[in-house]
UniProtKB/TrEMBL annotation:
Gene3D superfamilies: 3.30.530.20. InterPro entries: Polyketide_cyclase/dehydratase, START-like_dom_sf. This is SRPBCC family protein. It comes from Tritonibacter scottomollicae.
């Protein structure tokens, strides 16, 4: 068993980051070019949800079955816990939390991985995968803030 922990800071309110981090359409978008998903549902993750997909690394490797059970998804506490398995992994237990910070928010991913003797390799992959999500989220949040600022400006000009 290997554990990987990553933290990323965002200059956006915690509730906004939480909504982005728990949206499956956003996941599909930010993972483009790294992981492709066949059969991924649309919309927000919810507690009790079971998701079975086919994943392909870099869109080049043959699709592999992958399963995710959402054990907890609490919008108030901003915590998501899932149990996942497949594509060579016996257990991938992911806990995602978002916390308010003075400068915006902090997103923390803790991933506990059991892939037998290959756990070390999957831990390296997890570190790469979750770090890779940061920059696309930063861009999406900046785009959202720019659109909101433009909407606010138009609204104030109409008054």
């Amino acid at each position: 068993m290997k554990t990987v922990t990553l933290e990323h800071e965002y200059a956006a309110p915690a509730k906004v980051v939480w909504a982005l981090a728990t949206d499956l359409d956003v996941l599909k978008e930010i993972m483009k070019g790294v992981v492709t998903f066949e059969g991924l549902p649309s919309g927000r993750v919810h507690q009790g949800q079971n998701i079975t997909v086919q994943v392909s690394l870099f869109g080049k490797l043959p699709p592999q079955p992958y399963f995710m059970e959402v054990l907890e998804c609490d919008d108030n506490a901003m915590i998501l816990r899932s149990f996942e398995k497949g594509a060579g992994v016996k257990a991938w237990c992911h806990t995602l939390t978002v916390e308010p910070q003075p400068s915006g928010s902090r997103l923390r991913d803790v991933i506990e991985i059991d892939a037998g003797w290959m756990s070390w390799a999957f831990a390296l992959w997890a570190g790469f995968l979750y770090r890779k999500r940061h920059e696309p989220r930063v861009r999406m949040l900046a785009d959202m803030q720019a659109k909101q600022a433009a909407t606010d400006l138009i609204g104030s000009n109409l008054r």
